[in-house]
Amino acid sequence: MVPGSLLLPIGCLIVGWTSEAHTHWIAVDIGMALVGTGIILSFQCIQTYILECFQLHAASAIAAVAFLRSLASFGFPLFAPAMYDALGFGNGNTVLAVAANVLGCPAPWIFWYYGERIRNSSRHAH
User: Membrane-spanning residues where (predicted)?
Assistant: First the structure.
């Protein structure tokens, strides 16, 4: 999860600023490859963590995570056009990269150090 949490914001910055500067298309594609890799790595690690923690209730836990992910997917198009109109691609993706850093980068360390305590606080986790 650590590489994914680092690749996602780096990719966001590359995509935003190479789009803003109208550089060669391969630079934007490299950034998108990093974004996609970061998302997939993080997603797979989160899914595995949920499956391992909630073995008996894995289907419900995965459904809850999918529901929250779908809410985020629903909400982003509501504010993204206004954000990109106001800030441009570079600054808009910088906002996304900062949000990914604030939310995503501490997550692996929190689960590493406090994961057992988090699992023990749930009566459904093993």
Answer: 31-51, 58-80, 92-114
Closest CA to 34 of 69, 5, 70: 5
DSSP 42-70: HHHHHHHHHHHHTSTTHHHHHHHHHHHHH
Specify whether the CB–CB gap between 12 and 96 falls below 8 A.
Answer: yes
Alpha helices in the chain (DSSP H): 2-20, 25-53, 58-104, 106-120
* Tens-place pLDDT, residues 22-34: 999 999 999 999 9
pTM tops 0.85, yes or no: yes
Measure Cα distances from 64 to 19, 58, 98 in Å: 35, 10, 25
